[in-house]
Backbone:
């Protein structure tokens, strides 16, 4: 049973517009969430994270929102750039087993120039 | 600082054989995690090692095993290979503190024929 879900396998956005990537989780023990970006033939790279004690975290063009009651988080990229085209993975861990980070299936983002 | 190094990058094996993949973490990182990536499934957690001890394990059969050496380098072994084991195997390291992000290598692409 997939504990971290990304229901949109792909997303296309025009350059300069906002990209919104969504993620849902089922395990209420998760208390730390991360987003990773992956280019072809490379390993994933860490983008941004959020703790369950916050509902928003911002880093430049990237903002992650967390809605604990809905068990939902989203990554906003503003403005989107062609170099943002990649696969984005949502990931989560629980305080009781922080050594086990669970990833979603990923969303492929294409930013069209 | 050198990143996470995985060897080999590509591997072709025959069903029934066994394979060993290697991972050198970032210097100073004591935690090493292994993931399997297949299309549509995202990154599936295999196991995590810290100071030569397996701290956590995913839902994979016993054919998948790993170990970590005193210098934090890690190996994973898959015995009696099956066609379904064809995947990208990713290794990630981190210092070991709670919620520190994973740093991934570029992976080993295993093809089983």
Residues:
């Amino acid at each position: 049973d997939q504990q971290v879900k990304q229901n949109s396998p792909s997303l296309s956005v025009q350059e300069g517009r906002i990209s919104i990537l969504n993620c849902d989780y089922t395990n209420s023990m998760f208390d730390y969430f991360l987003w990773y970006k992956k280019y072809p033939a490379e390993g994933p790279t860490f983008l941004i994270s959020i703790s369950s004690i916050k509902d928003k975290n911002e880093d430049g063009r990237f903002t992650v929102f967390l809605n604990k009651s809905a068990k939902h988080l989203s990554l906003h990229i503003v403005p989107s750039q062609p170099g943002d085209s990649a696969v984005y993975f949502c990931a989560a861990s629980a305080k009781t087993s922080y050594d086990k980070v669970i990833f979603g299936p990923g969303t492929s983002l294409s930013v069209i120039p | 600082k050198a990143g996470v190094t995985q060897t080999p990058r590509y591997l072709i094996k025959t069903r029934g054989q066994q394979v060993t993949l290697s991972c050198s973490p970032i210097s100073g990182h004591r935690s090493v995690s292994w993931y399997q990536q297949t299309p549509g499934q995202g990154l599936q957690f295999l196991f995590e090692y810290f100071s030569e001890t397996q701290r956590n394990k995913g839902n994979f059969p016993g054919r998948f095993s790993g170990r970590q050496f005193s210098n934090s380098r890690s190996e994973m072994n898959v015995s009696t290979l099956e066609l379904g084991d064809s995947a990208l195997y990713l290794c990630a390291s981190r210092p070991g503190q709670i919620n520190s992000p994973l740093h991934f290598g570029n992976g080993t692409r295993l093809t089983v024929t």
Q: What stands out?
A: The first strand of chain B starts at residue 5 and ends at 7. Chain B touches chain A through 26 residues (CB under 8 Å). Residues 14 and 32 of chain B are 27 Å apart (CA to CA). The two ends of chain B are 37 Å apart (CA to CA).
